[in-house]
Q: What sequence folds into this?
């Protein structure tokens, strides 16, 4: 075999590998990683976000294969055209997440109509709207990203030392005066994912969202909390810092966040120009559960004294949120201390005085099921909490990592409006 | 597939025009931002240009006389274009994901996106232009 033939053979193998990869992406788009577990759970987090680009990859691989087998077009036309059909079908099925975007938008609009009334869009002044995304999705922003506006970021600010741990936060602020922006200095306390046992602030807490919200005039605090050591979760979040690990429970994690809220009131609000009359708790996965406990529990007797009473919580933003804490991570279980268990169960914490909630959920999430979140939303609504649930078809867990995708753009479009309407 | 020479000429001209328009609009996007009307128009042009570029490669594959020196060069450029598309998608994915991480600087993130986007349409423009230039060499094409 001469060098050219070897090169062509390698190209064929490469293209087939891409198409097999495309098939795996289709499987994960439709089913998620729940069935296969292992590395599939982690892969699922990237699938819907990269599926549109996978379309391009599969189309290119198919064309390359067609070029390599162009001699077959005359001699074996059935094989040649079958190859084209298979390749383009794989590419087409990968576009399903993108094609489902209009459904996401229609559903989100219906949710907003229900909570804020049918004319909610017209209640936002034009001078505010000019700072927002003008449309829920445009293709150029997907490819060329949403242009960043200047912001200030201060990293690794110490806020707690004790219990053999040190806790830090990063703060994202607008470079412009926040009073001229929709956020008006409102505070967003952003809690990272990682199943209560792993993860950390920064990259895996979606810094692009923090940066975007900062550019809108919000003061975003991306904070650490003590993590429970000694447990291995099958989808551990990467980059877990050593300095936050300890023999903790979820009660301790809430206490750590509570310490931050007290310091926010006494110190940090002045330093960073944070508006304590408008505070939001935002979190992802386990962080979403903690954000829910903070937002819904701040008016509960059980949590009295844990959080600063002078923060005016205007909303909670749980993304792919579990509804309750696993009993194993609490000091006592549900049977021995039901009151304590209920104090960490979002459905039990909900009451009509609680602030509104904006949920994010993908239908192919292998870690937090869509039915669980739908149940949580309907139970919270039945208790009088205003809830908007944004459903992203074919999206898995943590699919808001890239802000400019069809998922990220739609999410940010409604997030910035929710924040403004509830301020 | 019966396509006349002048029809191919039009196809290559439209492809060249839309590829160049995509490049110009790509630059303008960073000035204007994600504006509604501009974004809508740009989306349509992007999709049409992409399909025309795919068609361009397939058309060349069907119509080029690959035993002719010019045909061979254009065919190899077609291979180069497809390989660049695959490379470009990897760059694009890398750029978009790195942009959302704090491990690298924008000096790495944005060039990956720019190379991918502008490289794709530049390659498409060059291929379309060369096709127009070489259309007058009858030995390079299999016209019926």
A:
């Amino acid at each position: 075999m001469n060098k050219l033939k070897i090169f062509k053979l390698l190209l064929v193998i490469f293209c087939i590998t891409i198409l097999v990869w495309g098939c795996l992406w289709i499987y994960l788009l439709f089913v998620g990683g729940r069935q296969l577990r292992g590395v599939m759970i982690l892969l699922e987090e990237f699938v819907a976000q990269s599926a549109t680009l996978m379309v391009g990859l599969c189309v290119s691989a198919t064309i390359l294969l067609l070029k390599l087998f162009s001699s077959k077009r005359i001699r074996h036309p059935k094989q040649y055209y079958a190859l084209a059909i298979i390749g383009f079908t794989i590419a087409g099925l990968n576009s399903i997440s993108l094609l489902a975007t209009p459904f996401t938008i229609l559903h989100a609009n219906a949710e907003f109509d229900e909570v804020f009334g049918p004319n909610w869009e017209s209640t936002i002044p034009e001078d505010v709207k000019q700072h927002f995304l003008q449309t829920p999705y445009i293709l150029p922003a997907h490819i060329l990203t949403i242009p960043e506006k200047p912001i200030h970021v201060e990293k690794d600010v110490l806020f707690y030392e004790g219990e053999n741990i040190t806790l830090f936060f990063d703060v994202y602020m607008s470079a412009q005066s926040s009073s001229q922006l929709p956020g008006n200095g409102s505070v967003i306390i952003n809690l990272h994912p990682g199943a209560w046992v792993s993860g950390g602030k920064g990259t895996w807490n979606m810094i692009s969202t923090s940066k975007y919200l900062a550019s809108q005039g919000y003061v975003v605090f991306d904070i650490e909390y003590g993590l429970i050591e000694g447990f291995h979760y099958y989808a551990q979040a990467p980059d877990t810092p050593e300095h936050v690990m300890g023999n903790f429970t979820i009660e301790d994690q809430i206490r750590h966040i509570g310490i931050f809220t007290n310091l926010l009131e006494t110190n940090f609000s002045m330093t960073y120009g944070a508006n304590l009359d408008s505070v939001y708790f935002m979190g992802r996965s386990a962080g979403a559960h903690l954000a829910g406990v903070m937002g819904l529990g701040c008016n509960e007797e059980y949590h009295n004294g844990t959080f600063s009473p002078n923060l005016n919580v205007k909303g909670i933003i749980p993304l792919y949120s579990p509804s309750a804490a696993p009993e194993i991570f609490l000091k006592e279980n549900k049977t021995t201390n039901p009151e304590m268990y209920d104090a960490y169960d979002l459905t039990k914490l909900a009451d009509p005085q609680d602030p509104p909630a904006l949920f994010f959920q993908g239908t192919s999430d292998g870690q937090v099921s869509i039915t669980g979140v739908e149940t949580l939303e309907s139970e919270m609504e039945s208790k009088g909490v205003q809830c908007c649930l944004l459903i992203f078809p074919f999206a898995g867990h943590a699919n808001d990592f890239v802000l400019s995708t069809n998922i990220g753009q739609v999410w940010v479009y409604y997030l910035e409006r929710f924040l403004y309407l509830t301020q | 597939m019966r396509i006349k020479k002048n029809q191919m000429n039009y196809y290559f001209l439209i492809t060249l025009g839309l590829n160049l328009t995509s490049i110009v609009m790509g630059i303008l996007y960073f000035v204007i931002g994600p504006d509604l009307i501009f974004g809508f128009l740009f989306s349509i042009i992007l999709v049409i240009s992409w399909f025309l570029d795919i068609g361009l490669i397939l058309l060349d594959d069907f119509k080029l006389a690959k035993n002719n020196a010019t045909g061979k060069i254009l065919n190899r450029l077609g291979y180069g274009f497809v390989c660049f598309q695959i490379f470009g998608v990897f760059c694009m994915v890398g750029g978009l994901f790195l942009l959302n991480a704090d491990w690298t600087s924008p000096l790495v993130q944005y060039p990956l996106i720019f190379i991918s986007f502008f490289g794709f349409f530049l390659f498409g423009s060059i291929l379309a232009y060369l096709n127009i230039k070489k259309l007058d060499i009858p030995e390079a094409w299999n016209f019926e």
User: Anything to note?
Assistant: Chain A is about 45% helix and 15% strand.
